[in-house]
Amino acid sequence: VAGLGNYGLRGTRHSVGMVVLDQLARQLAVAEGWRADRRCCADVVTAAAHGLELMLLKPRRFMNLNGLSVASAAEIYNFHPEDIYLVHDDLDKALGKVAIKLGGSARGHNGVRSCISALRSNEMTRLRVGIGRP
């Protein structure tokens, strides 16, 4: 599960994917386990939930380069695009509204575009979190 955002600008609506991952890590009782993985330029932590082993990943890059971290992690940890969930902001959804989307285009989202390009696939499941328009 990759939380897309701008690492240096955490706390902004555009980086809501990272905020969601921080909350998920707290709920799974692994929030103290985040570690920097230099091989994929991301913060990572593993957790178990409902019999599944999860890896949570927060890229340490700007949004338009998040895909490089996601693709590196996929190669290192042997994930396929269909195994990956992207959590990202959506300007076209009202603040706090969420939707799940399987595959498809980036719809103008630079972080998703970066992931599609780096993974050479659009088969990732996406959790779109509404941030509304300013």
Q: Would you write up a description of this structure?
A:
This protein has helices spanning 16-27, 66-77, 110-119; strands at 2-3, 35-37, 42-49, 52-59, 85-90, 98-102, 125-130. It has 134 residues and is of the alpha/beta class. The chain has one domain (2-130): 3-Layer(aba) Sandwich (Rossmann fold), CATH 3.40.50. The strands form two sheets. A four-stranded mixed sheet has the order 1-5-7-6. The chain has a three-stranded antiparallel sheet with strand order 2-3-4. A hairpin with a 2-residue loop joins β3 (42-49) and β4. α2 runs parallel beside α3 (110-119). The N and C termini lie far apart (27 Å).
What structural class results from the helix and strand content?
A: alpha/beta
CATH topology: Rossmann fold
Number of helices: 3
Distance between the termini: 27 Å
Multimerization status: single chain
Got a strand count? 7
Question: Largest beta sheet: what is the strand line-up?
Answer: 1-5-7-6
Number of individual domains: 1
Named CATH architecture: 3-Layer(aba) Sandwich
Average pLDDT? 95
Uncertain segments: none
What percentage of residues falls in helices of 4 or more residues?
Answer: 25-40%
Provide the gyration radius in Å: 13 Å
Classified by CATH, the class is Alpha Beta
Q: Summarize the helix and strand pattern as letters.
A: EHEEEHEEHE
The biggest sheet, with number of strands, parallel, antiparallel or mixed sense and barrel status, is: 4 strands, mixed
Query: Can you tell me the overall shape?
Result: globular
Protein name: peptidyl-tRNA hydrolase
Keywords: Hydrolase, RNA-binding, tRNA-binding
Family: Belongs to the PTH family.
InterPro entries: Pept_tRNA_hydro, Pept_tRNA_hydro_CS, Pept_tRNA_hydro_sf
